[in-house]
C-alpha cells in the first residue's frame, strides 16, 4: 500500500525555514513559525524532522547541496567565467537582502561555529563555494579573462574573504544594495588580474 501523500515537499519546508531565519533570527525561530510559513501544523514538522534541531540540521544539509548545485545552474546564463563568478556570489548572498536579514543569518552562523554538527556542514558549504570560485577563476585564466600566472587558490581565498567582509560592511553602512556592494568590491579585487585589453565591467555583469 502506498504511503500517504507528503503534501508539502521537504525542500519547500527548508526554503521556508531559511525565510524564517532571515526574518526573525535565532530568538524567533520555532517549528511553529516554520509550519505557519508553509501552512502546516508543527506536529507535521516533528514527524518529518524530529525536532527544531533536526530541522536545522536538514537545512544545513540543504545548504551544502545548494552550494554544490548553484554554480552549474548559473554558469550557462553568463557569457564569461568572471560574470558567472559575480552572479554566483550574488546568488549565494540572495537570502540576505536587507541588513536585518543579514544580521539574522549572521547570528545563526555564530551558532554554527560553536556546534560541532552544524560547523561540519557550514565548513562543507564553505569548501564547496571555494571549489566553485577556484573553478571559475581557473576557467577565466584559460579564457584570457585573467592574467597568465594568476595565483588562483590565493585569489579564490581573497574573493571569499572580500565577499564576507563586503556583506558586513554593507549591513553597517546601509549604502545601496548588497548585490551592488558585492559587484563593486569584486571588481576592485579582480581588476589588477585582468589583462588591459579585456578591461573589467563586473559592476554591469
UniProtKB/TrEMBL annotation:
It comes from the Bacteria. Keywords: DNA-binding, Transcription, Transcription regulation. The keyword Transcription regulation applies. GO terms for molecular function: DNA-binding transcription factor activity; transcription cis-regulatory region binding. It holds the Pfam family TetR_C_13. Residues 7-67 form the HTH tetR-type domain. The keyword Transcription regulation applies. Residues 30-49 bind DNA. PANTHER family: HTH-TYPE TRANSCRIPTIONAL REGULATOR RUTR, POSSIBLE TRANSCRIPTIONAL REGULATORY PROTEIN (PROBABLY TETR-FAMILY). This is TetR family transcriptional regulator.
Amino acid at each position: 500500500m502506498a504511503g500517504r501523500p507528503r503534501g508539502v515537499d521537504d525542500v519547500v519546508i527548508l526554503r521556508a525555514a531559511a525565510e524564517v531565519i532571515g526574518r526573525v533570527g535565532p530568538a524567533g525561530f520555532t517549528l511553529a513559525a516554520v509550519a505557519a510559513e508553509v501552512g502546516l501544523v508543527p506536529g507535521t514538522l516533528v514527524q518529518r524532522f524530529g525536532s527544531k534541531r533536526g530541522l536545522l540540521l536538514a537545512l544545513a544539509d540543504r545548504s551544502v547541496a545548494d552550494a554544490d548545485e548553484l554554480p552549474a545552474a548559473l554558469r550557462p546564463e553568463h557569457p564569461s567565467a568572471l560574470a558567472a563568478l559575480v552572479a554566483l556570489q550574488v546568488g549565494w548572498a540572495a537570502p540576505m537582502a536587507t541588513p536585518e536579514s543579514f544580521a539574522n543569518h549572521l547570528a545563526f552562523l555564530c551558532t554554527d561555529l560553536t556546534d560541532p554538527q552544524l560547523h561540519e556542514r557550514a565548513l562543507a558549504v564553505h569548501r564547496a563555494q571555494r571549489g566553485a570560485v577556484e573553478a571559475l577563476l581557473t576557467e577565466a585564466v584559460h579564457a584570457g579573462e585573467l592574467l597568465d600566472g594568476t595565483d588562483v587558490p590565493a585569489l579564490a581565498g581573497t574573493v571569499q574573504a572580500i565577499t564576507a567582509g563586503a556583506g558586513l560592511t554593507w549591513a553597517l553602512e546601509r549604502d545601496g544594495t548588497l548585490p551592488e556592494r558585492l559587484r563593486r568590491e569584486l571588481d576592485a579585487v579582480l581588476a589588477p588580474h585582468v589583462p588591459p585589453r579585456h578591461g573589467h565591467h563586473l559592476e554591469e555583469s
